[in-house]
Amino acid sequence: MSYSKHNHGGQLTRASQQYGIALADWLDLSTGINPNPYPLPQLPARCWQRLPESNDGLEAAAQAYYGSAFLLPVAGSQEAINALPDLLDNHTDNPRQVGIIQPAYHSHQQAWQQAGHNVILLDNEAIDNKINLLDILIIVNPCNPNAHFFAPKKLLEWHKKLAQRGGTLIIDEAFIDATPGQSLIRQDAPKGLIVLRSIGKFFGLAGIRLGFVWAEEEILNQLAQQQNDWAVSHPARWAGIQALQDVDWQQAQREQLPKQAQRLADLLEALILTKPPKRWGVYFNSTNKHVLYTALFAYFKHPRAAFIHQQLARQGVLTRLFTGDHPALRFGFPATEDEWRRLSDALENIKL
Fold it and tell me: Among 1.10.8.60, 3.40.640.10, 2.10.109.10, 3.30.70.1230, what is the CATH number of 46-245?
C-alpha cells in the first residue's frame, strides 16, 4: 500500500497505468527540472558508509556560490517550507496573517494553513493594497507555475514595509539560478527576510533533496535546532559540493537554458497561431501573451488545456495540468533533439 499527499510533476507511474504506455516510452515534461543534470562523477563508497559531517566543505561551497555565509543546508527547500510556520509563530492566540501569491507552489499554502494561520491568496496586483494587513508575505520568484517575475526593487520595498512592523518576507527562489543577479541574497542577511534555494531545479539533482535557507543568524539557529542531526545525507552533501563548485558548467547552463526556453515558447506559440481556440474569452484574448517562460519551464495558457494535456498524454508526452478559471499547462524542456522532434510532432497531432 502506498500513500500520496499531493499531485505534482513527474507522476510517470500513474500516467503509465492510466494511459497504458510503458514507463520507458514516456517523454516527461511535467517538471521544471533541468533535463540535462549536472554530470556527477562516481560517488565514493565512503559516502554510503559514513554519517554526514558539517565540516566537509558544503557550507564553504555554498558560501562561494551564493555570496553569503548566512546559509543553512536543508533536505530540499521543502524542509524549510514545513518548518517556517511554527518557527515564525508569534506565540499568541492570534494566528498570523499570511499572504501567498496565487497560483504558486502548493506546499506553502498547506504548511501555513496546517499550522493554524490565516492564509490570504493574492493576485500579483493585489499585494500593494494588502501589504499593510499582512504579517508574512510569501513570494515564489520566478513563480512556479506561471513564470511571473517580481523585480528585486519591488520585493525590497515590500520587505521594508513588513519589517517595520515586525513582519517577514519569504522568497522561494527555487528557479532563479539561471539569473543569479536577480536573487535577493546579499552578503549580510537583514531581519525579516528569508530566501529559500534549491539544488534540484537548475542543477537537475532533485533526487538528492538538498536546498539552502538564507536568513539572519537567529532564524538559522532556530531552524538548525529543529533539524535532526543528519537532515542532509552524506551523498547529498557530496553531490552538492561538486555541483556548486563547477563554475564552468554553471555558466554553460546559463547560456544554454534561455535558448531552450525560447525554442519551447516558439513551439507553443505556433500551436496558438495554427490552431487558435474558438472562444478566447476575456482572459484568453488575442493581445495577451499565451506563453510565459523562465529558463527552466514554460507556462501555456489555453482554454482547452485539459484537452491538450490528454491529447499529449495519449502520445506518451506528460505535461503538468492546471485547471480552474485560468486553465494552463506547464512544459519542461526536452533533453535531446529526438525529444524535441517528438514534442513538435505531438503538438502537430493535436486536434482542437
Answer: 3.40.640.10
